[in-house]
Amino acid sequence: RYIGIDKIWSGVSASAVKVKSAGTGGLIIQSDLLDGLALKANSVDLIFACFLVYTIADSQKRNRLMRNLRHILKPGGKLILINPTQGYNAESIIRVSLEETRKRDGILYWFIKKMIVYPLTLKFGLRHVQNQLATGVWHAYSQDELCNDIREGGFEVKHIEQVYANSAYLVVAE
Question: Which of 31, 68, 93, 148 is the most buried (most CB within 10 A)?
Fold first, then answer.
């Protein structure tokens, strides 16, 4: 069963529509992860937090979030996090994505992505993230700091690697 949590109602409603159309069954909850979660302790097997923790600039709040996630995760459960590195670079993400698209999908799909999709992604998405990170509104991590935040939340880091054109860390913890 899938459980999705979003602070913003539009995210909750959009996720609910996707879960329903996929027929997978699931629960979508509107909640602020910093306020605790409307889930029982030790009730979740896997938590996947993709580009979530970095939006919390305050280290004490990030630590509270990690403890909240630890609280709901079953013993032996997995936490998978993806968060930006201090070297987050929007242009590199686009460049590497274009290279991979050309190899995988061919020249036509590459051309459409290069001329239409990725310029919009860069302008309205990735550069915004980069600016928020650069100004300290959001938080970019060093590898050591991310691992320390995860450990302080009660987790053991099992694996970490750079992904997303070396602009993010992928972490698996228990």
Answer: 93
By DSSP bridging, strand 44-50 and strand 26-30 are: unpaired
Query: Structure tokens of 82?
Result: 């993806």
3-class DSSP assignment, residue 25:
coil
> What's the whole-model pTM score?
0.84
pLDDT digits (tens, 9 = 90+) for 88-122: 999 999 999 999 999 999 999 999 999 999 999 99
Residue 42's pLDDT band, with cuts at 50, 70 and 90, is very high
Determine the number of helices (DSSP H) and then strands (DSSP E) in the chain.
7, 6
Angle between helix 143-152 and 59-72 (nearest 10): 50
